[in-house]
Specification:
The structure holds two protein chains of two kinds. By secondary structure, chain A is α/β, with parallel strands linked by helices. In chain A, strand 3 and strand 4 form a beta hairpin. Chain A has a single domain, classed as 2,3-Dihydroxybiphenyl 1,2-Dioxygenase, domain 1, CATH 3.10.180. In chain A, strands 1-4-3-2 form a four-stranded mixed β-sheet, with helices on one face. Chain A has a four-stranded mixed β-sheet with strand order 5-8-7-6, with helices on one face. In chain B, strands 1-2 form a two-stranded antiparallel ribbon. The chains are: A alpha/beta, B mainly alpha. At the A-B interface, strand 2 of A face helix 2 of B.
Chain lengths: 154, 88
């Protein structure tokens, strides 16, 4: 079998309350709802959101389909990346709306202004703004010794 | 959909799902708006919906077309189209 070059990669997340999540992602991250399908019992099978040029699929927790929300799992191992013109204003607004600061916005050695929040549904988002266009060698020269010695940010 | 198929010799397939998503996105971005006007020559269909460009959409589509035209012109100049080389 020949290896195919895929046509695209999307993200599909599970949340405990789809309506609240769509409202939050729309207001906090500029998402736009395009399509919604519900199960006959009213649970949201999926909502397709446009976020900038990309799409985010979102389903309500449906345990029979193994769609388990972070609140049930007790965490999430995934980080969603959102690039913005102005990371600070979106970060502050998301926090005002109920997101939790996981890592405050700071200038990072790879040339971005970058911070991480956990949204009210348990998903982690890194928000960033590109500041410098660095070659890989330049980034390598700036990598701090390690994330545990307090020099990782800034 | 048929128009796009014809224009691109089938290279761009605009299915109903893609068309719906595209229109929903254009509405969300305020580049088009749903219109009450209908086409009197079209057969009546209650499901048929009409959209019109907003002023912002008209500006965006003009700028996009101008950018594409400049890129195609550069491709012409570089001799990438039909082997012909134009002088700039």
């Amino acid at each position: 079998m020949t290896r195919q070059r895929p046509l695209g990669l999307g993200t599909h997340i599970f949340v405990s309350d789809a309506d609240a999540a769509v409202a939050f992602y729309s207001e906090a991250f500029g998402a736009a709802e395009l399509i919604r399908h519900c199960l006959p019992d009213g649970r949201v099978l999926f909502v397709e959101l446009a976020v900038g040029p990309d799409k985010l699929l979102l389903s309500e927790e449906i345990k029979e389909l193994n769609a388990i929300a972070p609140s049930t799992l007790g965490g999430s191992p995934v980080l969603l990346l959102l690039e913005l013109d102005d990371v600070d204003s979106t970060f502050a607004h998301a926090v005002e709306m109920g997101a939790t600061v996981e890592m405050p916005v700071a200038e990072m050695f790879w040339g971005e202004r970058y911070g991480i929040v956990r949204d009210p549904f348990g998903h982690y988002w890194s928000l960033c703004t590109r500041r410098e266009q660095l070659a890989p060698d330049e980034v390598a020269d700036r990598v701090p010794p390690g994330p545990t010695d307090g020099t990782w940010t800034g | 959909m048929g128009f796009v198929d014809q224009l691109t010799d089938g290279q761009v397939r605009l299915g109903p799902g893609t068309l719906y998503r595209t229109l929903a996105r254009l509405v969300a971005d305020e580049l088009v708006s749903e219109s009450e006007d209908s086409d009197p020559s079209a057969p009546h269909d209650a499901r048929r919906r009409y959209y019109q460009l907003t002023p912002l959409g008209a500006q965006a589509v003009r700028e996009e077309a101008e950018l594409l035209a400049r890129l195609v012109d550069a491709a012409h100049t570089a001799g990438l189209l039909d082997g012909e080389r134009r002088t700039a």
